[in-house]
Design brief:
Largest interface: A-B, 28 and 23 residues
Oligomer: heterodimer
Helix content of chain A: 25-40%
Chain lengths: 816, 288
Amino acid sequence: MSRLCRQMDKKSTKAVENPGGNQRNWVGQSTLCKEDPALLTGQARFIDDLEPVAGLRHAAILRSPHPHAVIKRIDTSAAEALPGVFGVVSGADLESLIKPIRSVVRAPIPYVPIAVDKTRYTGEPAAVVVASNRYVAEDALELIDVDYDPLPAVADPLAAIAPGAPVLHEQHGSNIASQRSFSYGDPDSAFARAERIIEFSYRFPRYSSTPIETFGVIAHFERAPDRFTAWSNFQGPFVLHPLMSSSLGVPGNRLRLITAPASGGSFGIKQAVFAYIVLLCAVSRKLGCPVKWTEDRLEHLSGSSAASDRTGSVKAAFMNDGELIGLRYENIANVGAYVRAPEPASLYRMHSTANNCYRVQNIAIDNTLVLTNQVPSGLNRGYGGPQFFFSLERAMEIAARELDIDPAELRRRNFIHTSSFPYRCPSGSLLDSGDYDQLLDEALRRADYVALKNKREQARASGRLYGIGFAAGIETAGSNMAYVTLEQAAEERSKGDPKSGATATAVINMDPTGTVTAYICSTPNGQGHATVVAQIVADTLGLHPDAIDVVTSVDTSTSVWSITSGNYSNRFAATVTSAVALCANQVADRLKAIAASMLEVQPEQIELSGGEAIVNSSPKRAVALRRVAANAHWNAEASGGGIHETAVFSPAGLTSPDSEDRVPSSLTYGSLLDLVAVEIERETGAVRIDKYVSMHDVGNMLNPMIVEGQIRGGFAHGIGAALYESFNYDAHGNFTSGTFADYLCPTAMEMPALDIGHINTPSPMNETGAKGLGDGCSMLTPTAIANAVSDALGREDIELPLNMQRVWSLTQAAGT
Amino acid sequence: MKPVAFDYCRAENTSEALAALTEYEDDASVLAGGMSLGPMLNMRLAQPEAVIDINRIAELGNIESHGSWIETGACVSQADALRSELLTEQVPLLGLALPWIGHYQTRNRGTLGGSIAHADPSAELPLCLVTLGGEVELRSERGVRAVAANHFFEGTLTTTRAQDELVTCIRWPVRTQQTGYAFEEIAQRHGDFAIVAAACSISAGDDGMIEALRLGFGGIEDKPVRPNLDSYLGALARPEMATDIAEQAANTLEPMDDATASADYRRSLAKLLGARVITSALSKCSSD
């Protein structure tokens, strides 16, 4: 055993011996992650480690090599004849077992997770082989004979909506899945009285999450009654559960989803595992055996999911003094070959905060959803944020140059005033708290902005390319699930039942020996949820966090869950921790009541500390919590029969969209502001980051170490999008980014120094005062760097990623 | 990403490896470090009938001095090569180029022979071998032959190696007096295959006249190229000439044009890196 392991063992042993500990106020401390010893010593169990039922067989998926083709015939006979092959199923074989999976878009664009008579993206499943092992399954894939009739394909969203473009879904007849227009305030008047109007058109690329662990599903169909169990690394949102059971044609309680104990990362993309749960469940039913499928990297890059890329324009109406009085957004979002739930939510996540951190009241938004021959889009860190901020925060920087106002000052002049919170945005969100001036002040101070500008002047005087860029943004957290229905017009929404809320749940049990187990349904993917839950519960019950076990594996048959459960929209800090706090209080109340009767005092006189219920009287009297717990279980007549508490945190005010399309989209709204200085090497096009300051307001920090980890991770994702990552397609729509040699992710070597600063305006909306923070710099870094490169080159036609070849081409153009 | 079934032959000595190569005719892949072959097998880009593992062959792990050559066995790892004082003293260009290859972890497994035999157009070791004018020793049951580097590499992942032949050793010319060496490359990320790599050696006489000038480029064409710069021989070695030489060299190139880099970008980088390595090599040969 390594030294590290020994130390860990020693530490955990000690903790159990002394479950009370002496420290209080664990919340707010950088408590080490309780998940880490298992992860670091190879003890954590991931989906690929699980063999939950006997007789598992292994699946491999045949995927379309064409972006668009008619499937004329699939001959599986040679594959089926291969020794070790249990069965081969094509899309046609599963047609009766999988109904199209619904989304909020009502157009006839049926989505099933396997191609039936036509394939619409490279990587789309066309057949599934089930065999004794994955090697044989892959051998069999090569023996399947598919007669494809290739069709013209279109990957570019503007080309897809041009006349004569190949149509993906004939029954719909157009590649425009939907269009909606919104207006808040009076945009026409604002633009009529504007003294300056800034126009900015952009393209924001398609990129992805690429966690180390790929998708994994184990599907098991059983009869009497007909039911499915699926183990997977699905991350939620569990609003997809009813869509899955409906697609599979079983009642909700006959689709049991179980998530793996540990996760190898997600960053959003494991939402799309749900499509493969449906596919593998149907395969298990068809072949009558439990089936395990672990996605490989080639499949992941071509066939899992990606962020929706966006093409669009912003018009910004300004007064000469820099006041922003109106905004017009035109958003063309490419959702890929199908509208796969919860899309088109990425287009609406920032909709209700379209003013960002500014006071602007008059906003028009035109949204167009476009279908192309690309993998269906889905969750990716920031979910709609990076695209949104690229439009507005690039426009702010361009406006600053055109108005000849410092970009920091232009933002400051438009910030929502600190005294205005809570602040109702024109499109519906209620910003809970913030201090954007302080955020900016602190960023300028940390970066020594004046010195940085001098440095820029000196660099330019000697012919070097040096630029400074900003980006400011609010960080929505704890989604009101209703926001997705903005896609539907008000009258269409009114036909259905109202939808609203951002529910979170928690369960805490205390067993007869007095040990505590907490259960949450936030399906963490490495963020340390268990650590933070233990900190909260420890504080409330007067225990050491190591004495509190936290179960994060969700089982829809036994867990207390709702449609909002899962890991998305920064919801853990914003909502889940509040459910935990409420639940811990309920447990504390029970313990105090029982202890009070044991000690013959009033419950109000009891304090929970150091593993004891204590009466602060003289002389001091106490009873160990294990005795209180034992009493609860053994003396049920007096104590109520055990300690099992459930709490539901369902924050008020997260209503349905109103008739004017206003909806409070989230519960908490953190804020962040990035300031970056870059130097471009003219000869190579390399962008070198000279300084990067990132300021954050995440409300109360529950665990500063985890906060920093999240911010650094989001920054890495943002650096990837800014400089390296994009899914590329050739002129014929063929996918050209199918390996990690073609799709470049930043590594530790590429990460520049990051200076992180914090201010704190606690959220008044929840129990902990914490705001969600997981997206962080992933939303702003692409834009901040684009702004800095734009400043360095003196041009606005900046597209991401800013790889060396692209930047070099820009430096060769006249004027730089 | 699972390979097809293949026979696995672990050769204990060179004879066994050569016998296996003969036995499987044209359907065997030789496994040295496996840094390229591994992924190619997993992606089924390579579907050999047999994989012949040469890692256990002791004589392929030697680094030896033979007069004007240093010989490195095919299985010498890039990490061991970098740690070999003999090699980096006598072949300074390798000492400069090896740190650019992949990552610390991949250099522990990746071998000199594997990289040479794989013949990636942007790999560092083929570029060094071509620039220095080294040799590749090929053995088969038919016999032994030595092939000059500029004849060994034929194009992307293709060489003159016959299917029954094994790259057994690489011969690197030892350093000459008053010679400066330099190596540089540009990649999108640290450790990636280079977009363009440049290697240079320049020898100057006591009178300061250029006696030998070798400038090679990787990543530009489908194999490492060394433009003819004989017109500069006998000229006085001056730092100011670096740009001219690089420009002349770059103008002879026919760069690839692909999604990673346009032909213009590659040519521009060749000029830039060419000038940098010439400047660096010149500064070292005069101070030698």
